[in-house]
Each structure stands twice: as structure tokens, then as C-alpha cells.
Write a structure and sequence with these properties.
The chain is mainly alpha-helical. Helices cover 50% and strands 6% of the residues. The strands form four sheets. A two-stranded antiparallel sheet has the order 1-2. The N terminus and C terminus are likely disordered.
């Protein structure tokens, strides 16, 4: 029976097609029950690597470590299975709740798939398939998803394998490779990725090229100023689908997908109000400087790209294992994502430079919008600015993707808002005549731990549910160091003061996931909570 399940699953993976057409959630099939055999075999295989070790204690420690990892893995699969059951029960009553449950299922599967080969685990594969099938049928078609959606991430992981793809060699007959600074090697693997992007992944890739029409003209000048090869711009296709708002499961953000620790190294600031990893100019300059330093380290563009994806430590260890700096020898020691990263970049670049040859629409780049930065007071919503200046809200959002909550951040007087140059006069008039009531005011409460959101809402006379939603909380009890932003009127705001450093979330969960930035030295030191001004 297990062989049959695996065979069916492999055929589904090869076909890349999700079965649709059932009329109700009752038709959704639940994956097979969890089994311990695969975990036991995985443990034995890993222990075999230590068989030659002289240290019995090391073997025992490794055995305990592997057993603990297997226990946690089983727990995650069980939790994902429970959430899948919950999603099925919610489909006919609340699609929004079902979406949330399925997103959680797929996030857990993505975590498991990082270290496990899905095709060798029928339980995990079955759960992934049915979760995707349910998502596609009841929540949103997979073809309409963007690059950072967890459903698309696991779908590409399962169906994005190019090993068995058949390449139509006729499409490459007479093809002349474009002249580039970064070597573009058109080998069999690159051809398979070109085929994959232009067939199974075509709908998504076409969407990425459409976004490139808007964003490439806005950042190519920056790339030239940083002295980088112009074709490196196509790396944003692989990284984010050219999406400044992209947010990966690893908490990487923006068009260039910086994680916070790397962002800090390149002076990208942020908190829950703004995040410069999504700022087009600053993140592009940071990524170019990062890539330049990696190329100077490895003197090889493919190794530099691999380090951008996996980190220099992993590339250095792989070079040592391979006893070579030849990318094609080193890459066999990379995990799958990094192994495919440079070939994907080459394939994406070739398509972007020759879209029509591979079945895509011609790219019609838009003229870049001349821009200027205009100082705007804190606490003003972009929708308000759009209303009074008559500048399109979509334009303001596109030019200022770093504004996470769609307004200028608190404790940031005269925020440099990017606006179209030809609308400078309109924004000046709008801000001069902006009614004081259109500004929002907040106080920042740094939690001491165990405090109730409802109690704080009652104290400050605000709606508890609105406070919960606005702060994107996951619990009604605050962790120590968490920051709660409480909306108040202008008069109440005068009684409090806080700096940008006070907005840094120092809670255990924020620290665990690396969401806290190092405070800039120019900021004044924060206090345990927003301090009330002393009366004279």
C-alpha cells in the first residue's frame, strides 16, 4: 500500500497538476496517518555516519539529538494535520478562518520541507498535496498567488523540480547568448529552468515581468551608480518576483529579500511602522554593496550569488569539502535551493532579455517617475495625503513601500515622503492646510510582562478589539518588552513623549525571530516605558 501511495504521489509531482472539481469540503481526502518507520530509518542512517567515531559518548549524544529532532518533527506533522482538519471544518462556514488555518498548515510544511525530502515521506507529501488541493479549490487558485505566499512556496518546492523536465531543443536552435558581464552559461540545467519558467510557472513569471516594467526603470540607475553589472537586476525576479512588499517564510523582506541581521549590516533601519528593507533605493544600494563584497571575496559570480542566498559560511564549508572553487563542483554540497539559485538567475536573465522567444509578452518598460522627498509630519495616513493632495494613493504606496502601516511613523518628525516631482506644489499646499484632526496620535507602552491588553484599553479608554488588531497581536497578554501603540487624542499625546528607540520590540518572540533592529546611536536611550512629561 505504501509503495502505491508513493507511486501516485510521484506521478502527481511529475504532472504538476492539482486535481479540482469536487463540489464540497466533504470531498477533500485526509492524508494517511503518521508512521514512525521513516523517522527510525532516518535516525539509523544518520547514526551510521558516526559508526567510525571513537567516542561512544558522541554517538549517544547524537542519538539523543536525533530522537529529539524526530519527536519535534512528529509533533509538527501532528499539529499540521490537526490544523488541516480544522480548515476542512471551517470551509463551509468561514473561508477567512479556513485560509488562516491552511496558511498555518503550509507554513509548518515549509519548515519540515527545509530539512526533509518530501518524496520519501508519504505522510508529509500527502498532507502537502491535500492542503494545496484544498487551498486551490476553496481559497484561491494557485496560479493567482504571489511569490511570497506559503502555498506557492510549497507548491514550487514539490512541483518545481526540473530533473525530469523534457527540454524542447528546437527553442534554442540558433539562439545567440546576450553579452553580459556576469557569465551566462546555457547548459542543460539552465535550459530546464527556462522550460520550467515558460511552461509550468509561466503565469507567475509573466506577472513578475509585468512588475519589472514598473520597477526596473526605477532601480537600474541605482545599480549603475553602484558600479554593478546591469543584468544583476534580474536577481530580483528570482528573489521576490520583483515585489517590494514580498515577505518570505524566513522573515526576509522586500525586492532583495534581506533578513534583519544582514539589513543591519547595511544600515537598513526599521520597526513595526517602517522597514527600509522595502525601500526601493536603500535596499537596492544595500543589496548591490552586499553582492559586490561577495564577488570580491570569491572572485566568481556564481559563488557570490550562492553566498547571497545561503550565507558565506555555507559556501566556505562547501568549498572546503569540494577542495575546489569551481562552482559546478562546489554546488553538489549545497542544499537544493542554493544549488539551483545561480542556474535560476541565469534562466531568468535569459528570458527577461528575450521574452518573446520563450513565449512571454514583450516587456514595455515605463518611464521612471521623477521624484522628490517632502517632509511630512508623523502620524499622517497615506490615504489622507492622497485625499488632500489629489495624488493617487497607488502612486504614494508604490513610491513608499517601506511604510508598513500606510502612514508616516510616530517619533519621526518630518518623515521624508517620496512624491512625484511634478506634484510638489500640490503636496506643499495639502500639508500646509492639513486639518489637525487628520493627524493620528499615539503613546508607546513598553510592557513589563503579563499585562492585559483589555486592562490597558480600559485605562486609556480605547476599544480593546481595535487595539488588538492595530498592533497585530496574537495574545491578549503582553510579553515583557513588547511595545503596544495606543491611539489617543492630541491633548493626551502632549502628556507623553517617546523616541524611535522606544518603538523597538524587545519581547522574547521578537528577539527569537530576529525582528529587532539594533538601535541607532543617534537615538536617545529608551526607557522601560514611554515617560510622562514632568510638569513644571
Amino acid at each position: 500500500m505504501k509503495i502505491l501511495v508513493k507511486g501516485v504521489w510521484l506521478m502527481l509531482c511529475l504532472s504538476g497538476i492539482l486535481t479540482v472539481g469536487c463540489s464540497s469540503s466533504k470531498d477533500a481526502i485526509h492524508p494517511v496517518a503518521i508512521k514512525d518507520k521513516a523517522d527510525s530509518l532516518h535516525t539509523l542512517d544518520s547514526l551510521a555516519l558516526l559508526a567510525q567515531s571513537d567516542s561512544i559518548e558522541a554517538i549517544r549524544l547524537k542519538e539523543a539529538e536525533l530522537r529529539e529532532a524526530a519527536r519535534k518533527r512528529k509533533g509538527k506533522i501532528a499539529e499540521a494535520s490537526r490544523l488541516y482538519d480544522l480548515a476542512l471544518s471551517q470551509i463551509n462556514t468561514s473561508r477567512d478562518s479556513a485560509r488562516i488555518s491552511l496558511d498555518q498548515v503550509l507554513e509548518l510544511i515549509n519548515e519540515l520541507a527545509e530539512s526533509d525530502k518530501c518524496e520519501t515521506d508519504s505522510t508529509l507529501c500527502g498532507l502537502a498535496f491535500y492542503a494545496l488541493q484544498t487551498y486551490h479549490r476553496y481559497i484561491q487558485p494557485l496560479g493567482a498567488l504571489d511569490s511570497d505566499n506559503p502555498a506557492l512556496a510549497i507548491h514550487e518546492r514539490l512541483f518545481g523540480k526540473v530533473d525530469e523536465i523534457t527540454v524542447d531543443e528546437s527553442k534554442f536552435l540558433g539562439f545567440i547568448m546576450p553579452k553580459t558581464t556576469i557569465p551566462m552559461e546555457l547548459n542543460d540545467e539552465v535550459k530546464k529552468f527556462i522550460t520550467y519558467f515558460s511552461t509550468r510557472h509561466k503565469e507567475h513569471f509573466q506577472r513578475y515581468l509585468k512588475r519589472a516594467e514598473i520597477y526596473f526603470p526605477m532601480v537600474e540607475r541605482i545599480i549603475a551608480e553602484e558600479g554593478m553589472p546591469p543584468e544583476i537586476i534580474n536577481l530580483s525576479i528570482v528573489e521576490s518576483g520583483v515585489n517590494p512588499h514580498a515577505h518570505s517564510r524566513a522573515n526576509a523582506l522586500g525586492m532583495w529579500q534581506f533578513i534583519k541581521p544582514t539589513g543591519k549590516l547595511y544600515d537598513l533601519e526599521g520597526n513595526q511602522w517602517f522597514d527600509e528593507r522595502r525601500n526601493l533605493e536603500k535596499s537596492t544600494r544595500a543589496s548591490m554593496r552586499f553582492l559586490k563584497s561577495l564577488y570580491e571575496t570569491y572572485d566568481d559570480w556564481y559563488l557570490a550569488l550562492s553566498a547571497y542566498n545561503a550565507g558565506g559560511g555555507k559556501v566556505n564549508r562547501s568549498i572546503k569539502q569540494a577542495k575546489s572553487k569551481d562552482f559546478w563542483k562546489v554546488r553538489k554540497y549545497f542544499r537544493r535551493e542554493t544549488k539551483e539559485y545561480a542556474p535560476r538567475f541565469v534562466a531568468a536573465t535569459i528570458i527577461a532579455m528575450n521574452p518573446e522567444r520563450f513565449g512571454f509578452e514583450p516587456i514595455r518598460y515605463k518611464e521612471p517617475i521623477p521624484i522628490v522627498k517632502f517632509p511630512v509630519p508623523q502620524g499622517v495616513a497615506l490615504s489622507t495625503i492622497a485625499h488632500y493632495s489629489r495624488i493617487s494613493l497607488d502612486t504614494l504606496v508604490m513610491l513608499n513601500p517601506e511604510l508598513v502601516k500606510g502612514m508616516t511613523p510616530p517619533a519621526y518628525d518630518n518623515y521624508p515622503l517620496v512624491v512625484p516631482l511634478d506634484r510638489l506644489n500640490d503636496i506643499e499646499i495639502a500639508m500646509t492646510h492639513l486639518p489637525p484632526s487628520e493627524r493620528k496620535h499615539f503613546i508607546a507602552h513598553k510592557a513589563r510582562g503579563g499585562e492585559s491588553v483589555k486592562a490597558l484599553a480600559k485605562k486609556h479608554q480605547v476599544d480593546a478589539n481595535e487595539l488588538y488588531v492595530f498592533n497585530e497581536l496574537k495574545s491578549w497578554t503582553l510579553q515583557k518588552g513588547a511595545v503596544l501603540m495606543i491611539p489617543v487624542n492630541a491633548e493626551a499625546a502632549k502628556e507623553y513623549s517617546f523616541s524611535r528607540a522606544d518603538l523597538s520590540d524587545d519581547s522574547a518572540s521578537a528577539m527569537r525571530y530576529g525582528r529587532r533592529y539594533k538601535r541607532t546611536k543617534t537615538y536617545k536611550k529608551s526607557t522601560a516605558s514611554a515617560s510622562k512629561k514632568r510638569s513644571n
